[in-house]
Amino acid sequence: MNQSKSMDTPKKKKPKNQVFKIYAAVLAMAAIAVFAYIILQTHKSQISTVEAMFYTEIDNIMSYGRIQNKKVELVREAGKDASFTSFDAMEYMLKGIENRPEQVELTKGEESNFATIESCLINPATGKVDIKVTASDIASSDDGYYYIFEEKTYEMAINGEDYIIEEGKDTELTFSVNLNYNSANSRLFSKFVVAMLKDGEFVEISKPCYITNPEAIAKSSPSFTQTKSKKGLLVDPNKLSTSELDDLGVKHAAYNVFVSRFFGGSGIGYTYNGKSYSFSRAVVEEYDHVFSTLTKKGIDVTAIILNDLHGKTELIHPLARSGGSAPYAAFNAADESGTQYLAAIASFLAQRYNGSGHGKVMNWIIGNEINARHEWNYIKYMETDSYVEEYAKAFRIFYNAIKSINGNARVYISLDQQWGQSLTRSNGYGSKEILDSFNRNIKKSGNINWGVAQHPYNYPLNNARAWTASGRAASYILDSETTPVLSIKNIHVLTDYLQKEEFLTDDGEVRHVTLSEMGYTSSAGQELQAASFVYAYKIVEANRYIDNLLLSRETDASVEVAQGLALGINDQGGGHKSIYNAYKYVDTDRAAEYTDFALRVIGISSWSEVIKSY
Hints:
This protein is α/β, with parallel strands linked by helices. It contains 18 helices and 21 strands. The strands form five sheets. The protein has an eight-stranded parallel beta barrel with strand order 12-13-16-17-18-19-20-21, surrounded by four helices. Strands 6, 7, 9, 10 and 11 form a five-stranded antiparallel sheet that branches. Strands 1-8-4-3 form a four-stranded mixed sheet, with no helix packed on it. The radius of gyration is 29 Å and the shape is globular.
C-alpha cells in the first residue's frame, strides 16, 4: 500500500511536462535516465502513471513494489549502493505497472462513486489523519495522481484548486495529512474527498468522509458510575442542596443546557481554533454547581443541549431565524460563523465538565425531539433527508468536539414517541423516518457511535395507565415496527429495530439507548402514576439494550399541571406523592414491599405476564 508524504499545505495544480526536470536531479545518473526513456517509449499508454512515479521520492517509488510483495525486500536492502537500489526500484515499478488494472474512462455523473474512502482516522502514533481509499480500477485523467481536498462542514463541494496532498494512482492508497488540532487550520470538523484532474478541472471521485475517531486525541476518558440501577430523574435545581436525591437513590440525572445563556455579562475567556470567546461567568458557575453536586453524589449526568430560538443569532440556522413559534431552533452548521461557535461551545462544555473539578458529564443529547420540527427544533420545512442533513452537520460538530476531549462520552440524537408518523402537524416527521435518514447520512459520511435518546410518553400524554390504551389510542400502540407511537408498552420495537445489521456500530454493537424523558401524570390518581412508573421500570430493567430511564420530573411544573400533566415525584408544594417510595425502592432489595401493589392495579399476578427479557 502506498503511504503518502506528510506534506499537506494546500497546493495548486501541478504544471505539466516537468517529469525529467524534477527527476533528473533525483536520479542523477545517465544509466537511470536512459532506462526511464526506454520505459516511457515501451509503455506509452502508461505515461501518466509513470509520470506520477517520477514525481514522488525514490522511496515512494520503491514502496510501489508492494504490488509484487517486494516491499520488505526493498526496505531490507535500503543500504545497498544507491544506483543499484534505484535499478531495483525501477524494475519493481515496471512489474507493478504491467500488472495494474487498466485505466477506465468515467462518464459524467458517475465520478463521485468511483472511489471509496474506507476510513478517515486519526492515527494516535503520528497525530495525523490517515485517509484510506480504495477503487476497483484506475480512472483516466490528465495526470497520474489522485488528490485529497478538504471541505468545511458547511461546504457541499470542493472549492477552487487548493488540494492538501496528491499521490500516484492506485487501487489502494492511504493519504496522511496533518490534523492541526485546536488551531486556525484545524481539520477536526472537516470532511475529505478524493479528486482527479480531468480536462483541466478537479473532479470529485468519492463521497466526502469525516473523521470518525476523535476520541483518539482525547486527554481524558473518565468512567461511568458503576451501578446496575437504571433509575434516573430530571432534577429540580432548587432541591440540589437537600438530601432528596440521596434519599431517592438517584443514579442518573438529566439537566437542560441552554447555549444562548453562555453569552453576555462578565466572562470566562476561552480560546479555541485560534479564536477567543467569552462565556458568562455567572451562568458557567451555575452549571458548575449543578454538575459538580450531581457528580459528588455518584450520579451519571446527562446534559441536554438546547438552542433557544431567540438566542445568539450565529447559533441559529439561517432558515430558522424567522417565522417559528417553537422555543428551540435548529443549530447553525450552515456557515463559517455558526460552525465556529458550535465547535467552541461544545469544546468548552466538554472540557469544563470532564471530571476535572467542575463536575462530570458523560452523556450529551443534541437538541430536543428533533422529529417535531415545528414544536421543538424549528427550521423552515424541507424534505426529510435535507432536514436531517442540517441536523447531522451540527451533530458531528458536537460529537467530534466532545469526544476529542472526553473519549468515553456518549452523544445522542433526540426523538419523541411519534414513531410511524407526525401526529400533530402535516409538516412534521415521524421519529422512525428521521432515525432511518440519520443512520444513512452518518454511514455515508463516516460512521460514528451515536446513540438514541427516546421519549416514550403515553399516548395520549394524559393517559395515566402505561400498560394499556383504549379507544383510538389502542390502534396507535402496536407491537410492530409499523406502530404509529412508541410508548413504554412497546418500547421493544425500538430496541428490536436497532438490532438490525444496518444500525449496528462498526464494532457490531447495538447503539446505546437512553429514555431521557418520560413520565406519568397523577391527575387521575397518585396510585395510577406510581403503578405506571413501576411498570415502566420493570420493562427497562429487563431490556439490556436500554441504559436508563430518566423520569420527568422531580417536582410538578405549573405549566404542565395546567394541561393535566402532573408528572412530578413531588407536588408543587414539595409534598411527596405515592410514586416517591415506589421510585425510592424499585431497584433495592425491598422492591417487592413497595412495588407489588402495582400488580393489583394493573390486574396481573406476575410481572412475567407483561415483561420479557432481552
